[in-house]
Design a protein that fits this description.
The chain is built from eleven helices and 17 strands. It is α+β, with helices and mostly antiparallel strands and 403 residues long.
Length: 403
């Protein structure tokens, strides 16, 4: 082990060696058996037992999550076994001719059937006949963002002779979704009722973040009647009966000052209205809290988390190629910008009404035109278009005339 700032008790190290011996038999054990083993090594009090388990979890020796209700009663003593299971369905492996050939084909589409997951667990010495152990591993992989349970209709995964009890579960595997190199967006009249937030991660955008956010939406909001579109860089998701959300990874050059530009890698969230009526603040705030909850969860276990800023497209972004985004400040009604040498004012009252806890000044809602993506010349995420949001982003001259 690497040198620690404080000395580790000797009985903790003996306990650690005993856990290594348990790895040879099974990868996970009930918490009460682990505590009995700790008591045999002189770790008797509940407080010290929790401390040693937290310590071993923090250094990667075990997986122990006491703050999760469905995971607190089991301890994974061999984390490599979980890695081996996940590796089999998140990496592209050429399947051998078996009875699971149809399940492997579905896995290629990003859908993992329960029978195939059970097969992977058996190969890693997990007793799938023990329902408690299997359900623990499933929940653990859901919590870590590798899987999301898929809600299916009565006809999707059922044959004419099968019954309700014959239907096995299936799971979305976001890391297996295909990458969309191009996506053509066809403007529709109803798309005018939309609003977008850009998340700037200050130069650091983890690869696992996008599928983790998609997982969070799929676990909370799914509908049999909504056609969900999923890829590893774009997702169209159900929010409620009259709202849906699109998430996309965008990459474009943004204005830094008059003479230079910088590359931005952002997560874009657009909330759209399915019907010809105004966006509901409750729906917008629900989508915002769902996305940002995943950023907060990245701080669990003492990790540093993912710093981010809420941004919007500045009204000076009239150029189709070069964009300027700025941090959303809801303490003001409009944001000033003179990065191009001219004065521009971006109206943010609509953002305050939809995302902030304030009442609208009037019952009328400004017209909102969707900022649409355009196809990128690079194989990365699509560039942003130059369309301004009417009623949200206006130049200083337009505002002066209106006043």
């Amino acid at each position: 082990m690497t040198k620690l700032k404080k000395d580790v008790p000797l009985n903790w190290m003996r306990f650690r060696c005993n856990l290594h011996d348990l790895r040879k038999s099974f990868p996970l054990y009930p918490l009460n058996k682990i505590k009995i083993l700790a008591s045999k090594n002189g770790i008797v009090s509940e407080r010290e037992q929790s401390e040693v388990l937290d310590f071993l979890y923090n250094i990667g020796e075990i997986i122990y999550m006491p703050d999760r209700t469905l995971l607190r009663d089991q301890v994974v003593v061999n984390p490599n076994s979980l890695v081996n299971i996940v590796t089999q369905f998140v990496t592209v492996v050429q399947p051998k001719p078996t009875e699971f050939i149809k399940a492997y084909r579905k896995l290629g589409e990003g859908i993992l059937e329960e029978v195939l997951l059970q097969k992977f667990c058996k190969e890693c010495k997990v007793d799938v006949c023990n329902v408690q152990n299997f359900e623990f591993l499933v929940e653990l992989m859901i919590q870590l963002g590798f899987l999301c349970e898929r809600k299916t209709t009565s006809s999707q995964d059922r044959t004419s002779t099968s019954t309700e009890s014959d239907v096995k579960r299936s799971f979305f595997v976001p890391l297996r979704f295909a990458f969309k190199t191009s996506r053509k967006v066809k403007p529709k009249p109803d798309d005018s009722q939309s609003i977008s937030i850009y998340y700037d991660f200050e130069g650091y955008l983890p690869d696992v973040l996008f599928p983790y956010v998609v997982n969070e939406f799929l676990s909370k909001f799914q509908s049999d009647g909504f056609k969900t579109e999923l890829s590893c860089n774009y997702a169209e998701l159900y929010l409620n009966e009259i709202h849906h959300v699109t998430l996309s990874l965008v990459n474009f050059e943004t204005k830094k000052n008059d003479s230079s530009f910088e590359q931005k890698f952002l997560l874009k969230m657009t909330i759209k209205q399915n019907k010809k009526c105004d966006l509901y603040p409750q729906a917008c705030q629900k989508a915002l809290s769902t996305v940002e909850k995943t950023f907060e969860q990245s701080k669990d276990g003492g990790r540093r988390g993912i710093p981010f800023k809420r941004c919007i497209l500045c009204s000076c972004s009239s150029d189709k190629k070069k964009k300027h985004i700025r941090e959303l400040d809801t303490s003001k009604d409009e944001l000033h910008c003179n990065i191009t040498g001219n004065d521009f004012w971006t109206d943010v009252t609509c953002y305050k009404r939809l995302f902030g806890e304030i009442s609208p000044v009037t019952d009328a809602v400004p017209d909102q035109t969707c900022i649409q993506d355009v196809q990128s010349n690079s194989p990365a995420a699509p560039l942003l278009s130059s369309a301004n949001q009417q009623g949200i982003a206006t130049s200083s001259s337009d505002q002066r005339r209106s006043r």
